[in-house]
Amino acid sequence: MHSFEYRHGELYCEQVPVSRIAKEVGTPCYVYSHATLTRHFRAYDGAFKDIPHVVAFAMKANSNLAILRLMAKEGSGVDIVSGGELFRALKAGVPPSKIVFAGVGKSADEIRDALKAGILMFNVESSAELRAIDGVAASVGKKARVALRINPDIDPKTHPYISTGLKKSKFGIAADRALEEYKLASSLDHIEIVGVHAHIGSQLTEVTPFVEALKKVVALVESLKAQGIGIQYLNVGGGLGITYSDEKPPLPKDLAEAIFPLVKDRNLTLVMEPGRVIVGNAGILVTRALYQKDGEAKRFVIVDAAMNDLIRPSLYSAYHDIRPVSESLLARPKHSVDVVGPVCESGDFLAKDRTLPEVKPGDLLAVMSAGAYGFVMASNYNSRPRVPEVLVKDADIHVIRARETYEDLVKGETIPSFLS
Ligand code: LLP
């Protein structure tokens, strides 16, 4: 459920016509709905109300400060993967006691900053990293709370680039080596074992892979207990999918119901790291058609947004629904078109072979489900300034990130004097 709907003949975000946003802010721009973000967070958090839990929003999906503040106000923590994300999270007011830190390549500086901030735990991905964290913790006179990330070798049946829990993946520690690694962890003076972590992939549209992974993790918790290693937190990661086209992913409450029997009466606090399911359908990318071009074999609609603004179609062949902002376009004759951007690459497209009503230059289009892994993956390729982000609340428009300027593009660059 989201708050982008046709009303009075045009697409609205909450009580604001998208055309008004385009007029005031220009295109391309990302638009997020406050009501949808709030509803999604509450649906997720509420689904787990009968289990002690921490929701740590996976901020890699959308790390705008305003979105993070909104999440923090709703009671969310965050899952971070870099020093930059830690910086943003703290700046947005996320309590350090609700921050978990994942990723295979944490640097000593990042570890130090996180220890100083007093985060809830590190999700550790290798024995080398465990030793590094122990060393840094010793140098700052702290004990690092850790969970080991277990690779349960479960196929999440999603895109290979976003599957993370298979043996061939770089993530986590093989389940059959976990006990050994936990013993190593318990022997290190500056490490405190608090949890087990597993995240198997993203955009999962079935509950079964979650359950299979969790069964393995719970079995590990039992073996650890037998060895005298107590676990307080069980982190099941993120990964719940959303509807981009006609997928029917489970609802948070379906996931909670499936998980509940496995974790109840075990004295565990669940940690969850949802990203996409919270923000994905709470955002759109608004773009304006520039030209129509009839190629030899295809018709192209050339728009002002490109792969540098939203890379998911180019990178994962991801499907994003494209809707005209003015409902009147729906009455026009339909054609199969490629919706492409101005970037100089054949891989620059937002949709391929898509049946759309005729789009004329000047028409506004909404690229749907763009709230997650949209702006955060944007780049300045082709020296295109990154686009603004707008948060709509009721009838108000808030620009939460300004459009970059040409000066922003060259910020930090210098021409050495020998070239002058
Ligand atoms: N936790 C960990 C450890 C993760 O690696 C991820 C995502 C999440 C949580 C959040 O997963 P979510 O709930 O959003 O599925 N750029 C790709 C997605 C990459 C996901 C990486 N890890 C895309 O656009 O589809």
From TrEMBL:
Keywords of this entry: Amino-acid biosynthesis, Decarboxylase, Lyase, Lysine biosynthesis, Pyridoxal phosphate
Q: Which Pfam families has this protein been placed in?
A: Orn_Arg_deC_N (PF02784), Orn_DAP_Arg_deC (PF00278)
Q: What class of enzyme is it?
A: lyase
Q: Name one GO molecular function term.
A: pyridoxal phosphate binding
PTM N6-(pyridoxal phosphate)lysine: list the residues: 60
Q: What's an example GO BP annotation here?
A: lysine biosynthetic process via diaminopimelate
**Would you say which domain of life the source belongs to?**
Bacteria
Cited SUPFAM superfamilies: Alanine racemase C-terminal domain-like (SSF50621), PLP-binding barrel (SSF51419)
Where does this protein act, in terms of pathway? Amino-acid biosynthesis; L-lysine biosynthesis via DAP pathway; L-lysine from DL-2,6-diaminopimelate: step 1/1
Cite the Orn/DAP/Arg decarboxylase 2 N-terminal domain residue spans from the record: 35-279
* Residue ranges annotated for the Orn/DAP/Arg decarboxylase 2 C-terminal domain, each copy included: 29-371
PANTHER family recorded: DIAMINOPIMELATE DECARBOXYLASE, GROUP IV DECARBOXYLASE
Oligomeric state and partners? Homodimer.
* Stated family: Belongs to the Orn/Lys/Arg decarboxylase class-II family. LysA subfamily.
Protein task: Specifically catalyzes the decarboxylation of meso-diaminopimelate (meso-DAP) to L-lysine.
What this protein is called in its record is Diaminopimelate decarboxylase
Q: Which organism is it from?
A: Nitrospira japonica
